[in-house]
Write a structure and sequence with these properties.
Distance between the termini: 22 Å
Strand order of the largest sheet: 4-3-5-6
CATH class of the largest domain: Alpha Beta
Shape: globular
Order of helices and strands: HHHEHEHEHHEHHHEHEH
Structural class: alpha/beta
CATH topology of the largest domain: Rossmann fold
Oligomer: single chain
Number of strands: 6
Radius of gyration: 17 Å
CATH architecture of the largest domain: 3-Layer(aba) Sandwich
Number of helices: 12
Largest sheet: 4 strands, parallel
């Protein structure tokens, strides 16, 4: 859905495979990438200002399953707001970004963490509910705050936002992301939008970063190696 995020995830998965000793073409897992670019805007749908992406995402997942895919990663955090509705109609295991992020944060012994994501994902409580079950406190900007407006600009600004700059992530987006992290003033932060994962790549942000895409890439490899189930 976020094309840059989908490509970024594949690069992450490649890196994690290599870090786990995989080398040579025949040693890598087979995978298929479907760029679900025609999914309707998830934010607009959740705000009831546009059609739901659910029918299209179901079509995409059915295509993947028909091609032999046995587990899928959907590289959009906000799309997980439609997870329950979709999974009722598609019998294909889906690595759930918020749930896997909770497990990793809990494993690291963290009981309070900041989060950056879209306004609608923030308002929907997508991550808050998952973390509340684990007894972990989420620190997030108010939806109508200047800080949240800056986060949305990193993602959506038509001049420099990640969704509009393709492969070339702008320096302005990166600098604004760094500014937001300083203002959040937490020791650990979740990059709760995959465009933020793309913008943060390679940056030393001065805090502990939990990237749901990186977490999902490790989970995917563990599943392929038979170390765990979905």
């Amino acid at each position: 859905m976020g094309t840059a995020a989908g490509i970024y995830f594949q690069n992450l998965f490649l890196q994690i495979c290599a870090a786990n000793g995989i080398s040579g073409d025949q040693d890598y897992p087979e995978w298929l990438y479907l760029n679900a670019s025609q999914a309707t805007d998830r934010t607009a749908a959740l705000n009831q200002k546009g059609p739901s992406p659910t029918p299209y995402l179901i079509q995409c997942l059915n295509k993947m399953q028909a091609a032999g895919v046995t587990v899928v990663v959907v590289t959009c955090n906000t799309a997980h707001a439609f997870y329950d509705e979709i999974i009722e109609q598609v019998n294909l295991p889906w690595i759930h970004l918020p749930n896997e992020t909770v497990k990793e944060v809990h494993r690291c012994g963290i009981n309070e963490i900041g989060i950056m994501n879209t306004i609608v994902a923030l308002s929907s409580g997508l991550y808050q509910r998952a973390f509340a079950k684990a007894g972990i406190k989420i620190i997030a900007p108010a939806p109508d705050s200047d800080l949240q407006s800056k986060i949305m600009s990193v993602i959506y600004d038509p001049e420099f936002g990640v969704k509009f700059t393709g492969a070339g992530i702008s320096e302005k987006a990166r600098l604004l992301l760094q500014e937001v992290i300083i203002e959040l003033n937490t020791d650990a932060i979740i990059l709760g939008c995959t465009e933020l994962s793309v913008a943060a790549a390679g940056l030393d942000l001065g805090v502990r970063i939990f990237d749901p895409l990186r977490i999902a890439a490790q989970v995917l490899l563990d599943i392929w190696q038979g170390k765990r189930s979905v």
